Amino acid sequence: MTDLEKLRYPVGKFERLTQPLDRATRAAHIATIEGAPARFRSLAGGLTDAQLETPYRPGGWTIRQVIHHVPDSHMNAYIRTKLAVTEDNPRITTYEEQVWAELPEAKHGAIEVSLTLLDALHRRWVAFLRALPETDFRKTYQHKEWGAVPVEEAIAMYAWHCRHHAAHIEQATRNTVMAEG
Mapping DSSP to helix (H, G, I), strand (E, B) and coil, where does residue 110 land? Predict the structure, then answer.
């Protein structure tokens, strides 16, 4: 892995599932999703506006953009998992996350709005996931690039996504300390 790839994927790339998850692993992924809002709030707490403008890598998003991206992405994930459970392998739409990250509210907006949204969204999403019967975790949605994605794989992917972007904020925070120090 190149240095840029290590900065881009500090926790490694997501690996698609090759077999169903056991209950304990699934529960651990759901717990990661549950804890993510507090983790992001903790990482961003006390950062100045100048620090929020620090990119996590050369050419990467700023801390502010990462914080706004996570609820954007997870709103899509929440809807996709609900569609998978309520419809027969629905075709889901993707979105241009890079373009969304360049919109004015993502580039300049107050992070508190997204942190509050993430908290409410994750409480609702976790309640939904914990109430699902075992068979619903194998239901799928159809992604244009990945094909059929089971709900449990989406859970693993978004738990990874939480860790992935938390690591980006940690990197950027180290960059701000080094720049100021």
Answer: coil
Helices (H), the chain: 3-8, 23-44, 49-52, 63-86, 97-101, 104-108, 111-130, 151-180
Predicted confidence (pLDDT) per residue in 107-129, tens digit: 999 999 999 999 999 999 999 99
Q: How many CB atoms within 10 Å of residue 58?
A: 7
Strand partners, 147: 143
The whole-model pTM stands at: 0.95
* Distance (Å) of CA 24 to CA 1, 55, 127, 159, 160: 30, 35, 17, 14, 16
Phi and psi dihedrals of 91, rounded to 5? -80, 120
CATH class of domain segment(s) 22-180:
mainly alpha
Contact indicator for 52, 111 with CB cutoff of 8 Å: yes
Q: What are the extents of the domains in the chain?
A: 22-180
Give the DSSP per-residue string, 54-100.
-BSSTT--BHHHHHHHHHHHHHHHHHHHHHHHHSSSPBPP---HHHH
pLDDT digits (tens, 9 = 90+) for 29-72: 999 999 999 999 999 999 999 999 999 999 999 999 999 999 99
Closest CA relative to residue 159, chosen from 138, 131, 129 = 129
